[in-house]
Write a structure and sequence with these properties.
Layout lengths: L2 H9 L18 H6 L32 H45 L12 E7 L2 E7 L1 H8 L3 E6 L2 E6 H10 L4 E4 L25
Antiparallel strand pairs: 1-2, 3-4, 3-5
């Protein structure tokens, strides 16, 4: 287009065509170049803190993996500890239950033995018998001693006292709370089974056992 034609077009109101913008030249990324390995085999940058390798995040050495044997052993110990705990709880529960039953049985026995004792306040014959790992005694008269050795009477322990009762009462007391039966004579038993039934053991009251 000649200058005259261009001038004519400008005079008519036409604007000149805009010139294309010139894009700036791209410069190589200096940071990317700095991160490139300097030579063959340099896959990672050198540490920048004194030449020492950086420890793994989280601090400390990595924990070694537990073997299956260690895991099984830990499970076995946990199962055993739980079983022992359950056994202790069950033993304590059984102990408390037994104590409760004993209290109830003693209370029932106390109620049953009301006014059933045959102890003679004037009795002066000591009848000895083993009970609770010790030698105990109860005072009876001559008739009661004969009936006691014949199995017609018996002795029941009640709150630290020893009651002389009939054989029928003794059997009922044994059914309620057997440990309370202190003396139950079998008339057919030999002297070795109840040596204290022998008259030689009917000693004076002032003798200390």
């Amino acid at each position: 287009m000649t200058d005259s034609l261009r001038d004519q077009l400008l005079g008519l109101g036409f604007k000149p065509a805009p010139k294309p913008e010139r894009k700036p030249e791209r410069r190589p990324d200096q940071r990317r170049d700095a991160q490139k390995p300097a030579g063959k085999g340099a896959a990672h940058p050198k540490p920048s803190h004194g030449g020492k390798p950086r420890p793994p995040q989280g601090g400390g050495k990595p924990r070694p993996k537990r073997s299956q044997e260690d895991i099984d052993l830990a499970k076995a110990y946990a199962i055993r500890a739980q079983r022992e705990k359950d056994e202790r709880i069950e033993a304590e529960r059984a102990k408390q239950e037994e104590a409760r039953l004993r209290r109830e049985a003693r209370a029932k026995l106390d109620a049953f033995l009301q006014d059933k004792g045959l102890n003679d306040a004037e009795a002066d014959i000591a009848r000895h018998f083993p009970y609770g790992g010790k030698i105990k005694r109860i005072y009876v008269n001559a008739a009661q001693l004969k009936a006691l050795n014949a199995g017609e009477l018996g002795v029941v322990q009640q709150n630290g006292r020893y009651l002389l009762v009939t054989a029928a009462v003794l059997a009922e007391a044994e059914a309620i709370f057997a440990p309370a039966v202190a003396l139950k004579v079998d008339p057919d038993a030999s002297a070795d089974q109840d040596p204290y039934a022998d008259p030689q053991y009917q000693v004076p009251d002032d003798l200390v056992w």
